[in-house]
Amino acid sequence: MYQSIITGLGAQALDFQEENMLILFADNAPDALAEIAVLHQHQAPPTEEIKIGDQILFGEESYLVTAVGREANHTFQTMGHCTLRFDAQDEPNLPGEIQLSGEKFPTIEVGVKIEIQSK
């Protein structure tokens, strides 16, 4: 359904780990946003909307989508942007947020592949 690769980490991108949160942006993000984001480059553009029950993989680490904010698909498709929160809640806190469940916070480094798979 979708593939990208992590191309960079803003200076503050992993500061949100304590809040179980990552901010994704395509690697053409403005400098101010790039500072707080995990930057990625589309390998295959989204072919479907992200929905509850889909899986997001960071390399071999798999996470189940438990909630999708009303703006998350639009911003992800147009700017490669969404906020991922690893809290497994069934309601997003923000319109651009995707809630995920998984064993632990993912390993985030340049070169890691991000995949979204439909259920």
Describe this protein's structure.
This protein has 119 residues and is mostly beta strands. An 8-stranded mixed β-barrel has the order 1-3-2-6-7-5-4-8. The mean pLDDT is 94. The chain is globular and about 30 Å long.
Number of strands: 8
Average pLDDT over all residues: 94
Largest sheet: 8 strands, mixed, barrel
Q: Portion of residues in helices?
A: 10-25%
Features:
2 helices, eight-stranded mixed beta barrel, mainly beta, 119 residues, globular
Question: What is the topology?
Answer:
Blueprint: E1 2-9, E2 21-26, H1 31-34, E3 38-44, E4 55-58, E5 61-68, H2 72-79, E6 82-85, E7 97-101, E8 113-117
Parallel strand pairs: 2-3, 6-7
Antiparallel strand pairs: 1-3, 1-8, 2-6, 4-5, 4-8, 5-7
Short note summarizing the structure:
The protein is mainly beta and 119 residues long. 10% of the residues lie in helices and 39% in strands.
